[in-house]
Structures are given as C-alpha cells and as structure tokens.
C-alpha cells in the first residue's frame, strides 16, 4: 500500500520529525515492570523502558547474531541491546529522518550499531540476511500489517526469530496475521499489567518531559501518546480497550 499524507505512517513520521529534538530521552516505549517493582531510580530514569527490551528478547540467544530493529526511534533501545546482549551487528531502521539523525549522533561510537531511514513494509535488506528482527511498540502505526509481517519473513534467515511487542485493540488477532505470513508462533503473552505498572512508576518523569521539552501546542498530544496517568494511552490500558502483547516467533523455512 503506498503512503499518503493521511496514512498512519506518514502522520507518525511527521509527528516524530517535529519532536525529535524535544526532551532529553532515548527510549519511546511504555516500559515493563513486575508487580512490586521499586520506584524509579533517578540514576537510571529509563530503566523500565530498558526492561521492556530485556523482556521481549527473553531467553532468545542473540549474541553474535545479525539483528534488525524495525522502528528504532531515537536509538536508545538498539544501543541497550548492543550493550546487554552483544549481537554481532544491529541495524535500526526508522521512518523518521530526524529520529535517525538523532540516533546516529548520539550512538555513533557504539561498534556494530548503525541506523538508516526505511519503511517497515519495504525493508531495505536482502532475503534471509537477518538472524533476528526486533520490533517494539511501533506496528500499530503501520499502514499494511500483512505486508510488514511478510517482509519480516522475507528478511529472516531460516530459523531466525521475530521478537515483537506492541499494543493492540482488544478484539484484534496479531497471531493470525503473523502465522499467515509463514512465521511459527513460539509464545504469546498479555503483559498489559506489567506495562501499566511501569507507567504508574514512571508517570511523573513522563509528565516532566512534556512540560519541560515539548512545545506547548503539542503537549496535549504528547500526554496522550506518552502514557501519562489519566490520559488516553494509560486510560485505554486500564479499561482493556487496548491490550499489550509480547509475541515471539520463528521462520521455519
């Protein structure tokens, strides 16, 4: 499906380009925390965002592998994965030119890590060239999900892993779309409670980002997007209008 100015992905690109330099943060996800998790550590303000990446990868062996992160945003997740899991290489692809520029500038010194502009539905990589595709909290903004999952299948090597987390409308069926693309589901879990726990612990920091770094005309949109307590994203999770799922799959052939 070709993008138009009214498409979800084009609206997202414009939003992220406009706010790429607003706020001093490297992660753009809602985070993950277990019940009873400690309060936010001021010395590690994005710890719950990091924990979401750690949970999505789980026990998957990615050390020494070729990784691709689709929709890598500001690059914080990719840099964390390089440090914590030691893949041989990791390429981050994002639709926002400004996000890519920001990630390149911030993480230029990380060996094996690179960033480039690209679209999820048309990944700029040869067939079978990737050992694991990582995709965290972004696909709800894509225009063509079947085409995206088909692209994941195409670029993965046989036996390669798809490590995926996102929010979904409660009546959606992402597992079916993934299976229809030829990927075999390994496991799937509802982690909405863990995401809400992280947002509860992190809401004050998120509100501070909005008030200190976002242009006033965009602050309401950012609160709705950023998971601040009492605003749209947070409320949709509490009402179960949205559920947050973590899905791991593999390319069998």
Counting helices, strands and paired strands, the structural category is alpha/beta
What does the largest sheet look like? 7 strands, mixed
CATH topology: Rossmann fold
CATH class wording: Alpha Beta
Continuous helix count: 9
CATH superfamily: Vaccinia Virus protein VP39
Termini Cα gap: 26 Å
> Which descriptor suits the 3D outline?
globular
Radius of gyration, rounded? 17 Å
Residue ranges: pLDDT <50 for 5 or more in a row?
A: 1-5
Order of the strands making up the biggest sheet: 3-2-1-4-5-7-6
Order of helices and strands: HHEHEHEEHEHEHHHE
What is the name of the CATH architecture?
3-Layer(aba) Sandwich
> How many DSSP-defined strands?
7
Mean pLDDT over all positions? 94
């Amino acid at each position: 499906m070709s993008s138009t100015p009214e498409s979800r992905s084009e609206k997202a690109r414009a939003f992220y380009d406009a706010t790429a330099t607003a706020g001093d943060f490297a992660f753009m996800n809602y985070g993950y925390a277990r019940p009873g998790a400690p309060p936010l550590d001021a010395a590690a303000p994005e710890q719950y965002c990091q924990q979401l990446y750690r949970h999505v990868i789980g026990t998957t062996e990615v050390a020494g592998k070729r990784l691709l992160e689709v929709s890598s945003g500001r690059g914080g997740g990719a840099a964390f994965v390089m440090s914590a899991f030691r893949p041989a290489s990791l390429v981050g692809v994002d639709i926002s030119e400004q996000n890519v520029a920001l990630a390149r500038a911030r993480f230029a010194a990380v060996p094996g890590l690179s960033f480039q502009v690209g679209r999820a539905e048309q990944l700029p990589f040869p067939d079978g060239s990737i050992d694991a595709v990582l995709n965290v909290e972004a696909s709800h903004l894509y225009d063509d999900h079947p085409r995206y999952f088909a692209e994941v299948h195409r670029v993965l090597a046989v036996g390669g892993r798809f490590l995926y987390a996102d929010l979904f409308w409660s009546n959606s069926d992402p597992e079916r779309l993934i299976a229809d693309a030829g990927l075999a589901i390994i496991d799937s879990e509802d982690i909405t409670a863990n995401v809400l726990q992280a947002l509860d612990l992190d809401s004050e920091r998120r509100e501070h980002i909005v008030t200190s770094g976002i242009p006033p005309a965009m602050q309401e949109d950012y609160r709705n997007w950023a998971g601040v307590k009492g605003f749209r994203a947070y409320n949709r999770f509490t009402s179960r209008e949205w559920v947050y799922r973590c899905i791991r799959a593999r390319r069998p052939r």
